[in-house]
Prior knowledge:
Structural class of chain A: alpha/beta
Distance between the termini of chain B: 34 Å
Oligomer: heterodimer
CATH topology of chain A: Rossmann fold
Number of strands of chain B: 12
CATH class of chain A: Alpha Beta
Order of helices and strands of chain A: HEHEHEHEHEHHEEHE
Strand order of the largest sheet of chain B: 1-4-6-5-9-10-11-12
Distance between the termini of chain A: 31 Å
Largest sheet of chain A: 8 strands, mixed
Shape of chain B: globular
Strand content of chain A: 15-25%
Largest interface: A-B, 21 and 27 residues
Radius of gyration of chain B: 20 Å
CATH architecture of chain A: 3-Layer(aba) Sandwich
Number of domains of chain B: 2
Amino acid sequence: xxxxxxxxxxxxxxxxPGARVLDVGCGEGELLERLVAEKGVDGQGxxxxxxxVSACLAKGxxxxxxxxDRDLDHFPTKAFDYAILSKTLQxxxxxxxxxxxMLRIADQAIVSVPNFGHWRMRASLMTRGxxxxxxxxxxxxxxxxxxxxxxxxxxNDLCGELDLRIDACAALTTGKPARPINPRGALENWxxxxxxxxxxxx
Amino acid sequence: xxxxxxxxxxxxxxxxxxxxxxxTALRLDSGASLSPLEIGYNTYGALNAAKxxxxxxxxxxxxxxxxxxTHPVTGKPGWWNKVIxxxxxxxxxxxxxxxxxxxxxxxxxxxxxxxxxxxxxxYGLSFPxxxxxxxxxxxxxxxxxxxxxSLLAVVGGSMGGMQVLQWAADYPEKLFSAVxxxxxxxHSAQNIAFHEVGRQAIMxxxxxxxxxxxxxxxxxxxxxAVARMAxxxxxxxxxxxxxxxxxxxxxxxxxxxxxxDFQVESYLRHQGQSFVDRFDANAYLYITRALDYFDLAAQHxxxxxxxxxxxxxxxxxxxxxxxxWLYSTAESRDIVRALNAAGCRASFVEIETDKGHDAFFLDxxxxxxxxxxxxxxxxxxxxx
Lengths: 202, 384
């Protein structure tokens, strides 16, 4: 994953102050900590690693050790205003189920996905004939956690299939500020490295 | 248990027996009431001026108020000396730590070995059956009598964790946070089954005398020791037993008899024998019964989340141990799910360890880190 967390700034911009937020895969709580400090949110994390959970607890964050693939089922319906899943949907065993669950638990979901349709991916695959290794996806195919890669167009299709509304979308590029985009624009599928979506049920 | 246990540089302890006035009775779930009521307790540290730094530590089945001070009978260091002490997660320099003996116990609190005022003799089996909620009610009375309006935290492992859950259900307005370690919201069939084996071992001892052993001047030590041995197996994981003892022998060669050939046999016999010096057989019956009767959801229409409806302002931390098969991670997750459903602020960690249920008072760095982080941030949130 990219070194910068430019996605955090965009998420902080999107989230309403004082909202109830679930951060799925919250790691050591960097985003939650900022959301609490800067937006006064009522935050809850879900994190798979014991070390991540301990780090969150030390920061005074509420965090449950668990697996986004399995344990979202444990949260009650409409418990949160936002469920956030940043840069990890493609690592889920069942991304479709995770999306559905996030929008059961929360009114809106904030999801970012690396775009496999980016021109570097396409060029790399075309010219080298090998799985691309880029800034956004730096690991070789046999070591990557990214098991469900998609393009911007693919993600649009899934949103349509699940009857989700795209309330906002921004392209993220390492080291640059987020750029609002029309996710259905053909050109964006070429030039967006990562896309961040604000989604709700129709 | 740990040979390396070093005794604490004496932590200043205050304590003794809290005697409630004769007209104060403890109302019990069974409908009976208990009077006079005495509670054995120890405290570590000092209550601050705002009375906001008090932490109640709840003990497990065979624990007591000697959480961080030397046990008067065994001479061993406090059972939670890895957690309570200077520089440890529960630091007496920062917190006022209260540890009590549960009602029904045998270390100073009113229990079956106390004198029944109606007869002037030891209660024995005429002692009323008590529950986890009764234990908690007595603790709440003590906290109030001490002039403490609310607790910074209530914390406990095993049966102590069940008391923590009961506190959250019954007195949420008196809690800022709650830490439940290696516990469950109810006793399973397997839990009850193991306890029944222990109770039957005690009752099968001819010296039990229908519970009236005190009058006969005897003690059902053999039965109580067997009960402890059976229970002790449930506190360890298979891996831990294997790692500690394997098939190692006590001496060279087999005895071709029924002496304790294997080290694990010798260990269990020792656990059983040393236990009877510090524990009362009838108290063991009553406390195991209280555990078996525990079912927090059943007290709230069968829905565990209902138990926590009033506890939305309490900060919860639930911990389990990966190799604990007595109160498994799945049972802790059920608690967390109910807390989430009730809209409570809950954290949960499963600590990776091969030490089994007993991990909560052993040297476990990740437990230390987790408790430290949680208590520290909780205290900060309350301005301590």
